[in-house]
Amino acid sequence: MAGPAPHQLFSYGTLQSRGVQLAQFGRLLEGKPDALPGYRITYIEITDPEVIAISGSDRHPLLVASADASDAVEGAVFAVTDDELAAADDYEVDDYARTEVILRSGTKAWVYLGAQTEHSPDGRSTAAA
């Protein structure tokens, strides 16, 4: 890795995949388990052929806000550089938008939520995607 990794990136889907990490970041990321409270997973169909080729699937998870306070999405949080965060942005299709959230551990991290989801100033979703 060239330089420090000042960003925390939470992944609940394909960014945890070895193949995706090697294709997008040129290395395997070391993640720590964490969770995002107040969300649940749904799935969307991806049509971008490059993303499908890298991930191996046209069906990707997408987070939506949950009315059930006990819901939380498990995943991993990775330390990434500016360039790696930009590479993650390039990988994610227009259905996703990068948003800063607070994870169960208290860690502030970037996560890709539904692009149509509205967010309050603290990063919490105020409407389902």
Written account of the structure:
- The chain is of the alpha+beta class and 129 residues long.
- It has 3 helices and 7 strands; from the N terminus they run E-H-E-E-H-E-E-H-E-E.
- The strands form 3 sheets. It has a 3-stranded antiparallel β-sheet. Strands 3-4 form a two-stranded antiparallel sheet. Strands 6-7 form a two-stranded antiparallel ribbon.
- It is globular and about 35 Å long.
- The protein starts with 6 loop residues before the first strand and ends in a 15-residue tail after the last strand.
Give the topology string: H per helix, E per strand: EHEEHEEHEE
> What is the general shape?
globular
Distance between the termini: 34 Å
Largest sheet: 3 strands, antiparallel
- Stretches where pLDDT is under 50 for at least 5 consecutive residues are 118-129
Tally of separate helices: 3
Residue-averaged pLDDT:
82
Strand order of the largest sheet: 1-5-2
Compile the SSE list and pairings:
Blueprint lengths: L6 E5 L6 H8 L5 E7 L1 E7 L3 H7 L3 E7 L6 E9 L1 H10 L4 E7 L5 E7 L15
Antiparallel strand pairs: 1-5, 2-5, 3-4, 6-7
Provide a concise account of the structure shown.
With 129 residues, the protein is an alpha+beta fold. Helix content is 19%, strand content 38%. The strands form three sheets. The chain has a three-stranded antiparallel β-sheet with strand order 1-5-2.
